[in-house]
Each structure stands twice: as structure tokens, then as C-alpha cells.
Write a structure and sequence with these properties.
With about 650 residues, the protein is α/β, with parallel strands linked by helices. The protein contains 22 helices and 19 strands. α2 packs antiparallel against α3 and α15 packs parallel to α17.
Length: about 650
């Protein structure tokens, strides 16, 4: 900054500032280690920045220590320590710029100009610093051992990097919670103020400390991860970080999950006495244990297996005490206990595994997870992942979804000219998967509608193929659940697929099951009326099971009523049941509904259903479910073959 040569005055420096920086960073690193902060890319950059600042403080102390003894030491260490000090300080700023590139989600190519500008400035200033010493227009040591300064670029360098950070913050402040931006800018402002006051008092002692202020803001605002003071629990992101760290370092863990559903409800809090008990579990039963609060009602305790080789005895003792506490509090629970597995490294998989096990448990039950249970979960997870992929790809002809059909015998034509489409999955790792296994999963995760649309599209494609080959196809029915009907675009999706296939709409029927829900009833009625205008036929599926409201059935314009297999079994068991079932079928027939009986197993069933006003028969007497392509073995062509 001054073009005239000035003799450096080392009396303006005291190591107290740098020592304080070193102590604070040491505490930071200890706290970071203890807090299980999530190991994100941003956090790794921040940790690197802390270490860089720690090294800078050391270099500053060494530089001034050698400068004091300039007459008794070689010149080179002074040059090296001074250069490394400046190099590390401005590397610190570059790391801050890089850190906020990720935090502010600056992913576009032109947004990375801040990073390139900072990096370029860092390189240019470093080169100038070296050249200043070599050509003696900056800092250099004379032959008579005096340290002189020529052009002092340090203030300009400092303002250059602070300016980049200010612009970065202000330009993209809408991408981050406003108080965070405000607090970080305040920390930068405080750094500038301290630098200014230090300059007015001709001091150099607190330069390194000014770089620490932004670090306070980053750690507190973006990486703070406080323990619950009463229970000693950490949050979900800490659990994720802990599991990832253990997997990375191949550290085996004991895990004990406690779920109490009453506390998973919004607003429910643990009583103080229960909090005290939970805290004692962390302190008393396992060495170096940590408890994480995953949700309101879910707590997971983890501890390193190597520090708890007698964990089985410790676990039994902990469970014994827990059961005694249950007598006091009376809160229903589910406890799942497991050791970490080499085959699982994703923290979410552990939570999903625990939930998978819990879903198959009764209240107040304790379950230990073994390899066999793990294999069942991994198979379940594989199906979930495949269903998710199918749902995301939206391929109406996805090879993993397979259409099977069960032919339906038409008593009027004495032919097989209708069928029911059935859903299967064929996966690489598991082979054929049946609906009772994957449909509940698909319904739970919201994937079922895409599966239904795939079955519809593939059914339409096969109907078109059979019609082109001359086969007589009256219709094929496709099952849709109430979850399908609730979809806003259900009707449009169905009509779109039928129109795309090029077959008459009456060649497809939709099977739905009656819903007890008043809102669902209104939706079903609306969708049936809308789609029937296009020529689509509707079946009421599973009549005779569960709840049947005749008033509602009469309101819905179904075409065919499917009597459940249980109706045939009941009618076959005694004359009274036969009379009742026959009466119901007669009533529907008189009202212009066609009656289809499911579960026809043999000729006795066939004769019985025929007497009970059947129009269509379906069951294993005629065929088990077969691939839809094999329907040509049952249907006949127009010429009678």
C-alpha cells in the first residue's frame, strides 16, 4: 500500500491472537467429532477451512518468532513462513467461496464464476507475493538483516475476497433462509471492523482471528447439531452420519430401536421421568452409546460392538429394566434389536429394516433381527425399488409387469369369449412375484396406478392382436382399485390408452370393488357414468364378501355382478344357502345385470351355478390363470376354429 520502503516493526505483533485462534479451532474440532455432524461435501470443505486457519495461525507465530531473531537466523525460513501464512489465509477465503457455491446451490456454469474469480485472485496474489520478495518491490530482507516492506497488497487482497463473499451472499440470498444470510454478512462485517480498528492502532495481532468469525457463523447456523439436554438424544441427520461413518470404517454397531406410537403423534412429548430413564439407558447399559431421536416416537440406541463384547448380557439387563419401567408408564412399545450388517451401508436401509420388522410385530413385543429376517427384508426392498423404478419410468409396456388371464365361460354362447386380466411381476432376482406380495407394497408407496395402467395397455395390445388374427373377443376385464379411481386423471388415462390401442372401447371392462366410504362412493359413481358413455363395461367385483349395501349398488350403473367364490361354496353346503344365493342372482338378472360366478372348481359347481341364473362362469374347472398370449387356446376365430 505504501510505495516507500518501510522497516517492519515487530513490536506491533503479539502471539496472543493466533494462540486464541488455535485454541478455538481445537475446541471446534473436538465438538465436531463429538456431535456426529453429517459428513456432507459442504462440511468437509468447512473442516478443511478450519484446519487451514489453524495452520495459518501456526505459520504466523513462527514467522514473527523468526523475525524477532532476524539477525541470528537464515532469511529463507522467514520468507517461507510469511508466504505460507498469506497463502493459507487467502486459501481460507477461497474455501469459503467454494463452500457457499454448494450452500447457495450455484450449479449453473456461469454461477461458478465466483469460484474461478477467487481461485484466479488467489493464484495471482500468491505469485505477486513471491515476486515482491524476489525483485524487492514487496517484502524483503536487506543484507544488513533489516525486514523492509515496499508495496503492501494485503489490504487489497483482503477486500477482494471479502467483496466476492458479499456479492455471493447478496446475489443469491433468496436461496437460503434469510436470517442465515444476514448473520453471515454480520460476521463478515465484524471481521472488517476488527481489521480496521487493528489498522488504526498499528496492530497485527488479530489478523488471523478475523478469519475465524465467518467460521463461527457457518458452524452455528449450518452445522449445529445440539443434543436434547434432558434425554441426550441426537437428531436423524446425526444418525445418518454415524451409520455412514461406521460403514466407511467397517465398525460393527449394536442397534436397539424403541418405537412408541403414541409419541409419534403431533404434539405428544415424553414426560420428564421418561426422559430421565432414556438418558440413563445411554449412560448405564452400553459403553460409548448414543441415542438418536429419529421421530417423535422412535429412538435408536447405537454402540460400538468392539467396546461391548458382552452386549448380549448388557441387552438382557437393559430389557429387564425396560419391562419394569413399562409397568410404571404403560406405554405400548415395539423393540427391535440388531447388529449392523456388512451388506447394509445406507442409514435409511436400517430405519426401513426396523420398520419392516415392526410391521410384522404385535405391540409390546421384542424382536431380534437375524440373517434370515435380513434376507426377507432385502427381498422386500428389491421389490420396492423395482416398483419405484417402474413408476418413475412410466413405460406402459414395461417387461417387468406381466399380464395373466383367467378365461371366462359364456353360458349363453357356450364359448370362451371373455376373460379377466390379472397382474403379475417377473423380476430378475426373484422370478415371478404374485399380487398378494407386491400389491400391498405398491398401494402403500403410491405405485399401484401405474401398474394398473400397464396391465390395461398390455391387455388392449393383446386384444388388438387377437382381433386382427380373427378371434372372437367379447371383452376382457381389468381390475382397478379405489386408489386408481381416486386419481384425478383416471378417466383420461383409461380413455387415452384405449384410444391409442385402436380397439373399440366395449372390448374392455373395468372391475371395481364396492367401497364403504361415502366420498369414494361419489367418486366411483362419477367415474363409472363418465366412462360408460365411451362404451366401457363395468363389473362389481367380490359381491358377497364384507359389506354390501344394496341401495348403493342400485345407484351404480354396473353391467355385471361377480359373485365371490364364497357364495358358490355356501350354496353347495346346504339348500337354504342355495335358495338365498339363487334368489339374489335372480333379482339381479331381472334388473338386467349379468351374473358371473367365480370359483367354479368342478361339474357340481358348474351345474349349481347354472341353476342359479349364471351368465358367466370362471374358475379352475376351465383354467388356472395363464399368460394372456395363451388365450388363443380358448377363444375361437370368426370361422369357428
Amino acid at each position: 500500500m505504501l510505495l516507500a520502503m518501510n522497516v517492519l516493526n515487530n513490536s506491533n505483533y503479539s502471539p496472543v491472537g493466533d494462540i486464541l485462534v488455535m485454541a478455538i479451532i481445537g475446541i471446534f474440532l473436538i465438538l465436531i467429532r463429538a456431535a456426529f455432524i453429517k459428513q456432507t461435501k459442504e462440511f468437509r470443505i468447512f473442516r478443511h477451512a478450519l484446519i487451514t486457519l489453524l495452520l495459518a495461525a501456526i505459520m504466523d507465530i513462527l514467522y514473527h518468532a523468526f523475525l524477532v531473531n532476524i539477525e541470528h537466523v537464515p532469511n529463507m525460513p522467514i520468507y517461507v513462513f510469511r508466504f505460507l501464512y498469506h497463502f493459507l489465509l487467502f486459501q481460507e477465503f477461497v474455501l469459503y467461496v467454494r463452500y457457499f457455491e454448494y450452500t447457495l446451490q450455484m450449479v449453473r456454469k456461469w454461477e461458478k464464476s465466483y469460484w474461478y474469480t477467487a481461485l484466479s485472485g488467489f493464484i495471482v496474489f500468491s505469485v505477486i507475493d513471491i515476486l515482491g520478495s524476489v525483485y524487492k518491490f514487496g517484502f524483503y530482507i536487506t543484507e544488513d538483516k533489516k525486514a523492509l516492506y515496499g508495496l503492501n497488497l494485503f489490504p487489497f487482497q483482503y477486500l477482494f475476497f471479502v467483496g466476492i463473499l458479499f456479492v455471493q451472499m447478496l446475489m443469491y440470498k433468496k436461496r437460503v433462509y434469510r436470517p442465515i444470510i444476514g448473520a453471515f454478512l454480520a460476521a463478515l462485517t465484524m471481521s472488517l471492523l476488527v481489521m480496521y480498528l487493528q489498522g488504526t492502532h498499528h496492530q497485527q495481532s488479530f489478523t488471523t482471528a478475523t478469519f475465524l468469525f465467518p467460521a463461527f457463523g457457518v458452524l452455528y447456523l449450518l452445522h449445529a447439531n445440539p443434543y436434547d439436554p434432558e434425554m441426550g438424544t441426537l437428531r436423524l441427520d446425526s444418525f445418518e452420519s454415524s451409520i455412514s461413518y461406521a460403514a466407511q470404517h467397517k465398525t460393527r454397531l449394536i442397534m436397539l430401536s424403541l418405537f412408541m406410537h403414541e409419541f409419534d403423534e403431533a404434539g405428544r412429548k415424553y414426560p420428564k421421568e421418561m426422559k430421565d430413564t432414556i438418558r440413563k439407558y445411554t449412560e448405564n447399559y452400553y459403553k460409548n452409546a448414543t441415542i438418536f431421536q429419529i421421530s417423535g416416537g422412535r429412538l435408536i440406541l447405537t454402540a460400538e460392538l468392539s467396546a461391548n463384547l458382552d452386549y448380549e448380557a448388557r441387552t438382557q439387563e437393559a430389557l429387564k429394566v425396560f419391562k419394569e419401567q413399562y409397568k410404571v408408564y404403560g406405554q405400548d412399545y415395539k423393540i427391535v434389536i440388531l447388529n449392523s450388517f456388512e451388506s447394509i451401508t445406507d442409514p435409511d436401509d436400517y430405519i426401513n429394516l426396523i420398520q419392516y420388522v415392526e410391521n410384522r410385530m404385535f405391540e409390546n413385543e421384542i424382536q431380534f433381527v437375524d440373517e434370515q429376517l435380513l434376507e426377507k427384508y432385502l427381498s422386500h426392498k428389491y421389490i420396492v425399488d423395482e416398483l419405484q423404478d417402474i413408476n418413475e419410468k412410466k413405460d406402459l409396456y414395461d417387461d417387468r409387469v406381466v399380464v395373466y388371464c383367467q378365461p371366462v365361460y359364456n353360458l349363453r354362447t357356450r364359448k370362451f369369449d371373455t376373460a379377466e386380466a390379472l397382474m403379475r411381476m417377473r423380476l430378475d432376482k426373484t422370478g415371478m412375484v404374485f399380487p398378494d406380495r407386491f400389491i400391498p407394497i405398491a398401494e402403500k408407496h403410491g405405485y399401484v396406478h401405474q401398474l394398473s395402467l400397464i396391465i390395461l395397455a398390455k391387455t388392449c395390445r393383446q386384444v388388438k392382436k387377437m382381433m386382427d388374427e380373427g378371434y372372437q373377443v367379447q371383452r376382457i376385464s381389468v381390475n382397478f382399485s379405489i386408489l386408481d379411481i381416486r386419481e384425478k386423471e383416471f378417466s383420461n388415462n383409461v380413455k387415452k390408452i384405449l384410444a391409442m390401442s385402436g380397439i373399440p372401447f366395449e372390448k374392455i371392462a373395468i372391475e371395481i370393488t364396492e367401497s364403504q366410504n361415502e366420498k369414494d362412493f361419489s367418486i366411483v359413481k362419477e367415474k363409472i357414468i363418465e366412462l360408460k358413455k365411451s362404451g366401457i363395461t363395468f363389473y362389481l367385483d367380490d359381491f358377497g364378501t364384507g359389506y354390501s349395501n344394496f341401495e348403493r349398488i342400485m345407484e351404480l350403473p354396473f353391467d355385471i355382478i361377480k359373485f365371490d367364490k364364497s357364495m358358490v361354496v355356501a350354496a353347495r353346503s346346504d339348500a337354504k344357502s342355495e335358495t338365498m344365493v339363487s334368489y339374489l342372482a335372480h333379482m339381479f338378472t331381472d334388473m338386467n345385470y349379468a351374473v358371473l360366478y367365480e370359483g367354479i372348481e368342478d361339474e357340481v359347481d358348474e351345474d349349481l351355478a347354472s341353476r342359479m341364473y349364471a351368465r358367466y362362469l370362471q374358475g379352475y374347472k376351465y383354467s388356472k390363470p395363464i399368460p394372456i398370449e395363451e388365450l388363443t387356446n380358448f377363444f375361437v376365430k370368426e370361422n369357428g376354429n
